[in-house]
Write a structure and sequence with these properties.
Elements: H1 2-17, E1 27-28, H2 60-68, E2 71-72, H3 75-79, H4 88-94, E3 96-97, H5 99-112, E4 116-124, E5 132-141, E6 144-148, H6 155-158, E7 159-161, H7 162-165, E8 169-175, E9 181-184
Parallel strand pairs: 2-3
Antiparallel strand pairs: 1-9, 4-5, 4-8, 5-6, 6-7, 8-9
């Protein structure tokens, strides 16, 4: 996530001078390159939607069930690289990966279902755990906002309403279902 901080440093300094950010989830009018999401984010986001998925899903429960059967493996162990973003079709074959691999796959599936979904990168600080760089999904269904914590190991930890989960996350950057990239004011709450 150091790359995110460096890429957004000019915006952070400008906004810090204009007053405090009150809502870390407020979107900022700042275009970001895909690489801002992490060193492993080397492709434009439409690339992650190329090719035909071989996993059929019809609802969010199907997405959760499929992810619960996957194995969390850090990039250094799986790919011998510090940060590697798998294509969702590769993730479907391996069924192994880390947070961005789980989140990219779920984001793609939600968008394919016609839902307004965002891939979000930032900091996750769940209760009683150390904060760290993370990627997750936020989506809307039937007028309700949700956070899909794709690496959760139970349905209850994976799928929560936005209002009940948002305090555990500090968003820095996002990309929506139309591949529009944006910054969040949560970046301003992060240290250099």
């Amino acid at each position: 996530m150091g790359f995110v901080r460096r890429a957004l440093a000019p915006l952070r300094r400008l906004l810090a001078r204009s007053g405090p950010a009150h809502d870390p989830w407020e979107r900022l009018p700042y275009h970001l390159p895909a690489e801002t999401f992490g060193r492993g984010s080397l492709h434009p986001f439409p690339w992650y939607f190329e090719g035909e998925s071989h996993v059929a899903v019809t609802c969010v429960d199907d997405i959760c069930d499929w992810l619960l059967a996957c194995e969390y493996v850090p990039d250094p162990d799986l790919f011998r690289e510090s940060d590697f973003w798998q294509h969702p079709l590769t993730f479907e074959q391996l069924r192994k990966g880390d947070c961005e691999d789980y989140a990219l796959w779920a984001w793609r599936k939600l968008v394919e279902m016609g839902l307004e979904a965002e891939l979000v990168a930032g900091i996750w600080h769940p209760h009683n755990a150390v904060a760290g760089g993370h990627v997750w999904v936020r989506y809307q269904h039937d007028g309700v906002d949700f956070i899909l914590e794709t690496v959760g190991r139970t349905r209850e930890t994976m799928l929560r309403t936005f209002d009940s989960a948002k305090s555990e996350y500090v968003p820095h950057a996002g990309v929506d279902h139309q591949f529009q990239l944006f910054a969040y004011s949560g970046y301003l709450h992060s240290s250099d």
